[in-house]
Amino acid sequence: MDISERASKLTPSLTLAVDAKAKAMKAEGVDVIGFGAGEPDFDTPEHIKAAAMGFLEAGFTKYTPSSGIPELRAAIADKLKADNDLDYEPSQIIVNCGAKHSCFNALLAVLNPGDEVLIPAPYWVSYPEMVKLAGGEPVIVPTTADNGYKLTPELFREYTSPLTKLVIINTPGNPTGSVYTENELAALAEVALDDDIYILSDEIYEKLIYDGAKHSSIASFSKEVYEHTLTVNGFSKPYAMTGWRLGYVAAPRNVAKAIDSLQSHSTSNATSFAQKGALAAYKGPQDCVVEMVAEYAKRRLRVIELLDDIGRIKYVKPRGAFYALLDISATGLDSVSFADKLLEQQKVAVVPGIAFGDDRTVRVSYAASLDQIETGLARLKKFVNS
Ligand SMILES: Cc1ncc(COP(=O)(O)O)c(C=O)c1O
C-alpha cells in the first residue's frame, strides 16, 4: 500500500525513540539513568484521580459536547482571567486531547497551503511536523545561547516574508527552559501586528517557573494582540496528567468555532471522566502544584551546580519547564553521536538536539529524582572528561 505524501513527509519523533531505547535497556536489567523523558515523574494528585474515579463509577461515560463539558470550559475561562488577565468566554475555549492536539487543531484551523510559520529553534519537536500536516511551511529561525535561545524582534523581521502567516512562541520553553519577559513579548507582538502575523502561544509550562521569573500571556497585551493570538495550555505538566490527554486552546470566536467543527469530525470530545478530573485540578487546592514546583526548583539548582562543576559544558540557566539544554560543541561530537555514546558508555539517556533543530546541543530533563540527577550528572562528567 502506498503512503500518502502527507504522511511520508513526517520525521518520526526522536524523543520517543530515545525513550524507547533507554526503556529497552532498562528492561534488560541495565542500570540506565533516563534524562530523556518530557513528563513529570510525580503521580497525578489524589483529589484529581478521586474526582475522575467518582464520575467513572457514577456512569459519566458517554459522549460530551465535542468542545468539552460546559463546567470545565467555564473553569478554564476563570483560570485564564485570574492567572493570565485574559478575557475569554467559555465558548471561545475548546478542550482537546492534550496540548499537542490543541496546537495541531489550532494550526489546522488557520493555515492554508503554502502559509509560512516561523518556529524559533531550538523548538519543541512536534511543531514543524504539525505545520507540515496542516499544509503549511515551517520556517526555522535559529536562536543562540547569547540571547537565551529566544526569538528577538530583529530575527523575527529577518525571517518574515509575504507568506508568513503565524509565529510560534513557547514560553516557558521546551527544550530551552527559556522564559520570555513581558517586554520581550511586547516587542515580538509589535512585529506580529505590523505584519499581520498570527501568534500561537504555547504556555503549557506556565506554572513551572523559577528564580523569580514571571510568566506573561502575550494575548493579554492589547485587543489587537488578543485578536491575533491562539493561546494553548493544558493539564499534563502542571498536574502530572500526561496520560489523561487534556489540553485546550482559547481563541477568537470564529477560530474557536472552526476548531470545534474540526474536532467534531475527528476526535470528538476528550475523555468524559478525564474532563471531570481536569475540573477538579482547576477548582481544587493548588498546593500540589506548589509542592511539585518546589521539588523541580531544588532539582534545577542541583543540576546547575553539577553542570557548573563539569565546566566544559556550556548552557543557558533554565528559568522554566524542567529541561536544561547543554551546548556540547566543545566535545566535537554531533548531538546524535554524543547521545549514543553517552548511553552506550555511561548508561545515561539524553535527547540529541537535532530533534529540536540544533545539533550543537542535547537536552537533559530533570523530571527525575535528586539521586538520579547526582548519579547521572556524575556519569556525564566522566563521559565529557574521557
Ligand atoms: C512545548 C510543549 N507543548 C505541548 C506539549 C504537549 O503536551 P500534552 O501532553 O498536553 O499534549 C508538550 C509536551 O511535551 C510540550 O513540551
Structure, described:
The chain has about 375 residues and is an alpha/beta fold. It has 2 domains: about 140 residues, Aspartate Aminotransferase, domain 1, CATH 3.90.1150.10; about 220 residues, Aspartate Aminotransferase, domain 2 (3-Layer(aba) Sandwich). The protein is about 45% helix and about 15% strand. It has 14 helices and 13 strands. The strands form 3 sheets. Strands 2-8-7-6-5-3-4 form a 7-stranded mixed sheet, with helices on both faces. Helix 6 links the parallel strand 3 and strand 4. Helix 12 runs parallel beside helix 14. The longest helix is centred in the last third of the chain and has 24 residues. The model has no long low-confidence stretch (mean pLDDT about 95). The site of pyridoxal-5'-phosphate has 13 residues, from helix 5. The site of pyridoxal-5'-phosphate (PLP) has 13 residues, from helix 5.
Attached small molecules: pyridoxal-5'-phosphate
How far apart lie the N and C ends?
48 Å
- CATH superfamily membership of the largest domain, which one? Type I PLP-dependent aspartate aminotransferase-like (Major domain)
Q: CATH class of the largest domain, anyone?
A: Alpha Beta
- The percent range for strand residues is 5-15%
